[in-house]
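Subject: NDP-sugar synthase

B.,
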Amino acid sequence: MTEAILLVGGKGTRLRPMTVNTPKPMVPAAGVPFLTHQLARARAAGVEHIVLATSYLAEVFEPYFGDGSSLGLHIEYVTEREPLGTGGAIRNVASRLRSGPDEPVLIFNGDILTGLDIRALVDTHETSGADISLHLTRVEDPRAFGLVPTDATGRVTAFLEKPQTPEEIVTDQINAGAYVFRRSVIDTIPTGRPVSVERETFPDLLATGAHLQGMVDSTYWLDLGTPQAFVRGSADLVMGRAPSPAVPGRRGDRLVLDSASVAPDAKLTGGTVIGAGATVGEGARVDGSTVLDGAVVEAGAVISDSLIGEGARVGARTVLHGAVIGDGAHVGADNELRDGVRVWCGARLPDGAVRFSSDQ
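Prediction pasted inline below.
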């Protein structure tokens, strides 16, 4: 098994404003674009050829990764003229694949951080003789996901999209966003229109008697679609809870990139990342957060579980908890932003404009 498709065309609307200027897979996690971690893990599992299915801000990918040789890969790029959905995107890149009709092709969603044993998924696919094999994981609350019940042999019996009632929740197994397709199956996906593998391709194949196999792998798994999840995933990579050979430094409580400046008495904890050229001032405390390249955290600021965009500035003594500050935004001194507040790219918040008191 030597090739894969990475689906990186989504607009990342849930991650805005971080995705206004940057496609979601290129937002830095643990010091490098998140996509770097996926590419590195695929290469470690033996993948040599990867096709990136791009759409939104497609022009960003190739200048960064080039032909992939720096990662030991051969990378090609295919851009959708109009969004085609997961299935349509897979079909749209089929002409770039080199596998024979019965050979396996790995497919990954570009927003999933996982410790999946990629080789085990491929082995399951080959030993079971499946047409498609799916990585499944178990979650406590499956209502936001697609349920995938299986029989005693692991064969998929149904696809249930985002169930809401107790009667609909027949399993805690969900579609975890990584698949192995028999190459010939990709050619059966319709062309020239949007297709969802979750809502159309998989159910239709099941209905016609195709063999879809599930492999439950309950190692680390996180959908990075929201700012809170993205920050957590980055911190978990830094601390070694999530595996990746691409983290640029030692695992630990903090990752400070070259050319960043951190005051000696500043405290960085919880997997915090300080990007290249960023500055953290005296007495500042940053916990479980990502501060991107060129951002400034002024003296005495207290930041936790937050994402600070490129070139943004957080004023002195400002408190951020679970906040997102867009690229180039400026939050003045003595503000307090909590619980999912987002400041748009380039916005300006004056000193002391927002405060929370203990009785609010």
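The radius of gyration is 21 Å.

T.
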